[in-house]
Amino acid sequence: MPLNLYAHPFSSYCQKALIALYENDTPFEFRMLGPDDESTVAEWMALWPLKRFPVLVDGDRTIMEASIIIEYLGLHHPGPVRLIPSDADAALDIRLMDRFFDNYVMTPQGKIVVNAIRPAEVRDAYGVEEARAMLDAAYRWLDGRMAGREWASGDSFSLADCAAAPALFYADWSHAIGEEFAHVHAYRQRLLARPSFARAVDEARPYRPLFPLGAPDRD
Ligand SMILES: N[C@@H](CCC(=O)N[C@@H](CS)C(=O)NCC(=O)O)C(=O)O
After folding, report:
1. What structural domains and CATH numbers belong to the chain?
2. Is residue 13 in contact with ligand 1, taking CB distance under 6 Å?
3. How many CB atoms are closer than 10 A to CB 174?
4. Are strands 61-64 and 28-32 parallel, antiparallel or unpaired?
5. Measured from the CB, is residue 66 less than 6 Å from ligand 1?
6. What is the tens place of the pLDDT at every residue in 13-44?
7. For 167-179, how does the pLDDT look when each residue is reduced to its tens digit (9 = 90+)?
8. Residue of 13, 64, 68, 162 with the most ligand 1 atoms within 8 Å of its CB, for mutation
């Protein structure tokens, strides 16, 4: 039975999981969550009533949360690219960076985007200011961290980079990474050049008009 991924190509968390699948050429079926796919949407809502995607189904197992999907793939469908090393200490730092990108980059950037699609009377200007401040702090810290590094943790591409790629991609659209953060810009470019993420970005291009803040005319 093939792996089934309930996802949308333009979703940042789905791209995070897709990068892991593409890194290892893992076969799977893409279950599109879109307005024209009502029965797939109904299946997904039954699987995960919290209504968040991606969701991976492997036989009788349902796996939620992009990080856990990547951990699961490493355990049950491993390929040549190990995104989480067996060395526990090295894995700890990778998980820290994964949390960093989810909590301090993806989350505040999502707040800015969600605020833009709310009705004007319930917009949260204060929350958006907080999100922008968090992103600036995250960019500053990451810039120091990335000095002299190729990837977010250790010497090779990992779970942390799967999280970083869509997080920095969309964060730069929502709240531009300052020019002074040269190491973050260089890292974002390296992520864009990684074939697994380049593929995810290409597959999502047709959906750019959906970006609530207006997608810039660049990657
Ligand atoms: N913590 C979840 C977050 C997943 C998430 O928020 N996904 C977004 C799409 S990028 C979503 O489901 N949005 C639907 C909604 O907010 O209603 C993960 O890591 O997978």
Report:
1. 88-195 (1.20.1050.10)
2. yes
3. 21
4. unpaired
5. yes
6. 999 999 999 999 999 999 999 999 999 999 99
7. 999 999 999 999 9
8. 13
